[in-house]
Amino acid sequence: YLPPGYKTGKDGYPLLIVLDGSAARTEGFFTNALDHLINRSVKPAITVFVGEPNLGETPPRDPWQYFELMASFLGKEVVKSIDQQYRTKSNPEDRAIIANGFSGLDALITTLKNPGLFGAFGSQSLYVADSDVEVLRKMIKTAQEQPLQIYLDWGLYDLRASRESWDIREGNRNLVQLLRER
Known about the structure:
The protein is α/β, with parallel strands linked by helices. It has six helices and seven strands, in the order βααβαβαβαβββα. It has a five-stranded parallel sheet with strand order 2-1-3-4-5.
């Protein structure tokens, strides 16, 4: 998504990466929202909608290995390619990555594993288990070490399953507590 004025201007623009991009565009009507919000309550930005990656015939069994691959791919390959093709600003405060649900952890880990690349992370209804929070405890730096703007949102009726012992609301609350500690 290129903001109004991009083609006729020469200025650089902030970069927004949206994970689960196909759903964001088709079900969330994200481009329509950008059209209506830019220059009103949102700064103009180049927005890249990233779909599900093709990890080949044998994707990693270990979910943390998958997260590492995604963080490397998004942080190095995708951003590098966008920077080469478009007039992006390269300061961390001009780069953000957002996602929802199960893709939220991809966005968070990409942010944490690429310090100095992204200055903002956002997620709605991030799926994060208690075991994920414990692994993240080792990754999350202090605000002085890795300054970030973070937006987390979840709803009263978000997914939860008492039999499987997970609850999106509680997972987000635990993550917020960890972030506040840092």
